[in-house]
Write a structure and sequence with these properties.
heterodimer; A: 279 residues; mainly alpha; B: 123 residues; alpha+beta; two-stranded antiparallel ribbon; elongated; binds fe (ii) ion
């Protein structure tokens, strides 16, 4: 709909608007890179912000990560999960706070994809299960940013989905000239997320293009499809998108394994009933 | 099966899934009947929601009608990928779970939009 120039201009505007990391994270990132600090020092640094550390611990102990033990402190979280995951958790809690209030359906969708990703990872006996479920949690990060910063365009996108039956991605492309997957990539870059997180965010709709993390990207691609198929949360439009054959082959999921995974997803993602308050 | 916040629990309901801590440690086992004691224990453990047996439909008719609408929504979600045998297989597995009452069966039909809250069939 828009010319290339207009799209490019929007792109630049959007990059300027990208949420920045809390200053403290920047400080910690530098400390990690310089390798002059111990895990203990870094844990203490994060613990100074009590609200943030409480949020990070709560997320780390959420059911969808499925850790085998309780994460009691930030230092422990750093040891068990590594700095990249803790950084991802900090990002999640700052960005998604906004989303929980404004876009409950997208939050549910994201938690659903995190849960499904961790179930698949467990069945495939993949290492770094936490990182994989974090990739699931963050996969639609670009959508959160679009909602927060491009409200008018989001209305136009929503209208195209409603009235003309476009998928969210097609509508984003038509209105903006780019999609939430690309926005997610810019964000991942500006936040210096590892490729294990950046690629699933960028390529979860096009997993064949992943180079550094093809398996994690395949897992998130498939988890997104399952959660949409199941109808948990709101992925932007109601339709299950095409399943990438190569991604499916990469996971080598046989029919039996698939059956078990779906049963487990259904068990873990039981929808909540909102009963009216008694008088 | 359905999930309920602790403040809406009623005595006599039955837990359909273990109540676990985030790390998987079982706090209360599935099959336990909800009593005043269980409710106060859940409060003390700061558990927010539990999964319960059965459903909240007033009649068999209501249940059947609800299931019909859920299956319709399921078919709609998969309507653009009917040429993919793998996805059709997944659709049928999901349908099976729906019929067993093991998936996406929020029953409260209050006008406040329970369906949306529940995240099932939101489309
Ligand atoms: Fe997406
Ligand atoms: Fe998604």
């Amino acid at each position: 709909m828009l010319g290339d120039r207009a799209a490019a201009k929007k792109r630049v505007q959007l990059i300027k608007n990208l949420p920045t990391l809390p200053g403290m994270i920047e400080q910690i990132s530098k400390a990690v890179e310089s390798q002059r600090f111990s895990v203990d020092d870094i844990g203490k640094l994060i613990s100074r912000d009590q609200v943030l550390s409480a949020k990070v611990l709560k997320l780390a102990n959420s059911a969808f990560f499925g850790f085998s033990r309780k994460v009691g402190s930030l230092t422990q979280a750093l040891v068990l999960l590594g700095f990249d995951v803790v950084k991802g958790l900090i990002l999640t809690s700052s960005v998604f706070d906004l989303m929980k209030a404004k876009a409950e359906g997208l939050w549910l969708h994201s938690m659903g994809v995190a849960t499904a990703s961790s179930i698949i990872a467990a069945h495939l006996e993949m290492e770094d299960a936490e990182e994989i479920s974090l990739a699931g949690l963050l996969h639609d990060l670009g959508k959160v940013v679009l909602r927060a910063h491009m409200t008018e365009d989001m209305e136009a996108i929503g209208a195209l989905v409603e009235d003309q039956g476009l998928s969210t991605r097609e509508a984003e492309q038509a209105v903006l000239g780019f999609t939430h997957a690309e926005v997610g990539r810019w964000l991942a870059e500006s936040w210096k997320l590892p490729e294990q997180l950046a690629e699933p965010i960028q390529y979860h709709h096009d997993p064949g293009r992943a180079k550094d993390a093809p398996l994690v990207t395949a897992v998130v691609h498939f988890a997104d499809i399952m959660v949409r198929g199941y109808g948990y949360g709101d992925g932007g439009d109601p339709w299950v998108p095409p399943l990438d054959r190569a991604a499916l082959a990469r996971m080598s999921l046989g029919p039996e394994l698939l059956k078990e995974i779906i049963a487990e997803v259904c068990d873990k993602l039981v929808p909540e009933v909102a009963l009216p308050d008694d008088d | 099966m359905f999930k309920l916040t602790i403040d809406k629990l009623q005595e006599g309901m039955v837990l359909a899934q273990d109540v676990t801590r985030g790390d998987g440690v079982v706090l209360i086992s599935a099959g336990r009947q909800v009593t005043g004691e269980v409710i106060s224990l859940l409060h003390r453990l700061e558990v927010e929601t539990v999964v319960l047996e059965g459903d909240l439909f007033a009649s068999e008719e209501e249940r059947v009608e609800h299931l019909r609408r859920q299956e319709q929504a399921l078919d709609h979600r998969f309507s653009r990928v009917t040429d993919d045998p793998v996805l059709m297989g997944i659709r049928e597995l999901l349908r099976h779970h729906l019929r067993e009452g093991r998936a996406a069966m929020p029953a409260a039909e209050d006008p406040a939009g329970a369906g949306e809250q529940a995240g099932g069939e939101s489309c």
